[in-house]
Each structure stands twice: as C-alpha cells, then as structure tokens.
Amino acid sequence: MVAAGQGARLGAGRPKALVPVGSRPDSRPLVCRALEGALRTSVLRHLVVVAPPDGDGVAQVRSVLQDVPTGDVTVDVVAGGEDRVASVRAGLGALPGDVGIVLVHDAARAFTPPEVFDRVVHAVRAGHAAVVPALPVTDTVKAVRAHGDVELVTGTPDRAGLRAVQTPQGFLRETLDRAHAHAAGEGRHTDDAGMVEAAGGHVVVVPGHARAMKVTTPEDLAVAAAWVDDEGEASREPCLVVLSGLPGVGKTTLARELCRRTGAAHLRVDTVEQSLVRGGLPEEELGAQGYAATLALAADQLRVGLGVVADLVNAAPQARAAWETLAKEAGSRLVRVELVCADQGVHRSRVEGRAGEIEGHRLPTWEQVQEREWEPWPGAELRIDAGVTPVADAVAAIEEACR
C-alpha cells in the first residue's frame, strides 16, 4: 500500500496519507481508511504500508495505524523512496519471499470496495500475470501537443477502447520483480502495470468501481468526506436487510458474508424454527410461529442499535408487510432484497446438492421447491439473480443500498 506521497496538489500542508477525511472531530486519516478497506477482503496475508520517506514519515504512519484492528494479517510500515517506483520497490523488499501474488494499492484510493480486490486476485489466480481494475472512459479524450501558448489537438482516440485504470493492481510476484528490475533507475512510470508492459508483459483488465476514486485535489477530498459523513449518518441508523427467496437460491451464503463484513446480526428462520420444534412446538405450527419469533428477535437487535439481516423465504404478503412495519416502528433503514435464480438448472443443482447443517431440519426436495408459491416483492430495493451474481458483488450492492 503506497502512502508515501506528499500531496502537494491536495494542499493540506502534510503528507496526503495523514490527512483526515470527513467533517467530524474524530475523522481518521486517509491511510487508516485505506487499511480498513483492504482488510475487509478475505485474500490478504501480509500487508506493507510504504510511508513518506522523511524522518518522521514511518513513525507518523505507525502512530495513526496502531488502533486499526488487523486480525490475522501481518502489517509492516517501511519508508518510501524518492518516487513511486522506488516506494513500490521498498514495499516489495519488505514482503516475505514466499508471497506469490502481490497487490499494489494506492492509499489515496482509500474507498475501493473489497470486491475489487477479490476480482483482481481471482484473475491472477486464473492465470493472468498482471491484472488491473479499470472503468470505461466516459469523456471525449483529445491527444495534443504544444503549439505556442496553447495546445494543438492531434487526434481523438476512440473512447470505446479506453479505460481509466485504478488500484489495487495484481501481479505474480516474479512478474512484478522482473518489471522493477527492467525499470531500474527509471522514475517515469506512474503505475506498475505500465512497467510490466514496458518489460514486454501482458496486462488484463477487470471491472473497477467508482468508489476507487483517487483523492488528489481538494475537490476529491470533499467528495470522500461526503462519503464518510454519509456513513456516519447511516451507522447511527441500524439497517434492516430482509432477504426473500425460494429455498436454494443462496440466501444463507449471502447473509453470512454480509454479516461478516458489516457486523449485523444474522437471523435465519430455519434455525429459529428448529429450536421451537426441539422446545415442543408442533411442526404444523412452524410457519407462523417461526416467523413471529424471528421478527421479535430482530426487533430486540434493532432496539440496541444493531443491524439485522433476516434470512427467510418470506413469500407471503402479510409476512413482508410485518418486516416493513417493524422497520418503521424501530426507525431503521429497510432494504428489501429479492433473490432469484433464473437458471433452473443452476437452482436445481443447488437445491439437490445442499447438505443439512441444522439438527432436525429436513431440506425441501426440488419438487417441493417448485410447488412453493412465489410472487415478486413490489417495492423491493434490490432484485439479485444469485445464479449469475458473485456473492461479493451482491454484498456490495446491499451495502450501497444500506448507505
């Protein structure tokens, strides 16, 4: 994670990585945001933060990062170099020798969603030695050259073939090492993918994200501050996410990942129902009683300020209305998510391939799933086809809806 820039264009009077983001008194520096964002992925093992090269740079970065929980990820802080190439080389030198895949990330892109990290790593693991996230260029671009006191347009590239590159950029370790050796003594490169290209390597592109914006100017910082302040408002208002979908579409997998990333409580109606059965409730009464108990548990979590992810089929209009009423009574933000699996073959495979994990719970057969009544949820904030949407992307969409 490159955090060695002085941030001259930002004009904050201090290294860019140490500039607080947001308007609240407890606003944290950019590098803290960047580290927290990177740690939300599941792919990191060792992280090196490259600090400003002046005498106090390493100490200052270590100081602001000391309260960021890092879990099982080892985090080191080293001094950067006189330019970006030298700083990345310093970070590479601090990585253990057995690290085979390296991500190079700009701390200035502190709000990059975790699914971008995941996409980059997946592409490297799939056999691509150099991978960059990028967005399509939407502005018309002109090539120019100096012409007295103005610039003369020399061409208009077709923007359909242009991409605005972001970070993290992912590489096989040997590919990145070879590119740096080839570029030794050259400070002109602005990203590591360009170094790989210059060394004769091939680079592939995966989708980036608008939130991977690079904070460079005061205007950029204002946009990032607005994001932070919005998050602060959302954090004071617990979010109730209600999943709705037939058995086997992937509700529980999605709910668990969403709760892992957000800290929300996972309320799974199957678990509640089987607890009621073990307590003596007749199975024929499960439908109404299980939903009522899950709703009551959700109300308790929301009252103490915890977010909730409700994981249930939730096909009946009266059941859906009950969740909407709860959100209003609790003063919570409601996000209704309709999960489907449009490919019947994929859906059937999931239903028939599931293994029971709750004691006493009998999983429905494919025929029983097909017999279930199902209607779209009018007004649902999101409709996600879980058969084609990666879990990471679905979680990101729900998080954005909660914000």
Descriptive terms for the model:
elongated; 2 domains; Spore Coat Polysaccharide Biosynthesis Protein SpsA, Chain A; Rossmann fold; 403 residues
Topology:
Elements (H helix, E strand, L loop, with lengths): L29 H10 L6 E6 L5 H9 L8 E6 L4 H11 L6 E4 L9 H12 L4 E7 L6 E5 L2 E6 L7 E3 L3 E4 H10 L9 H7 L5 E4 L10 H18 L3 E6 L6 H12 L2 E4 H10 L7 H18 L4 E5 L4 H14 L2 E8 L3 H10 L12 H6 L10 E4 L5 H12 L1
Parallel strand pairs: 1-2, 4-9, 10-12, 10-13, 11-12, 13-14
Antiparallel strand pairs: 3-8, 4-7, 4-8, 5-6
Task: Give an overview of the whole structure.
The structure is a single chain. A hairpin with a 2-residue loop joins strand 5 and strand 6. It contains 14 helices and 14 strands. It is α/β, with parallel strands linked by helices. The strands form 4 sheets. Strands 3, 4, 7, 8 and 9 form a 5-stranded mixed beta sheet that branches. It has a 5-stranded parallel beta sheet with strand order 11-12-10-13-14, with helices on both faces. A two-stranded parallel sheet has the order 1-2. The protein folds into 2 domains: 216 residues, Spore Coat Polysaccharide Biosynthesis Protein SpsA, Chain A (Alpha-Beta Complex); 166 residues, Rossmann fold.
**CATH class division of the largest domain:** Alpha Beta
Instruction: Please count the beta strands (DSSP E, at least 2 residues each).
Output: 14
State which percent range the strand residues make up: 15-25%
Distance between the termini: 26 Å
Counted up, domains total 2
SSE-based structural type: alpha/beta
Question: Mind describing the biggest β-sheet?
Answer: 5 strands, mixed
**The CATH topology of the largest domain, please?**
Spore Coat Polysaccharide Biosynthesis Protein SpsA, Chain A
Give the H and E element order. Answer: HEHEHEHEEEEEHHEHEHEHHEHEHHEH
DSSP helix count?
A: 14
Helix content: 25-40%
Uncertain regions spanning at least 5 consecutive residues: none
State Rg. 25 Å
CATH superfamily of the largest domain: Spore Coat Polysaccharide Biosynthesis Protein SpsA, Chain A
Name of the CATH architecture of the largest domain: Alpha-Beta Complex
Shape category? elongated
The residue-averaged pLDDT reads 90
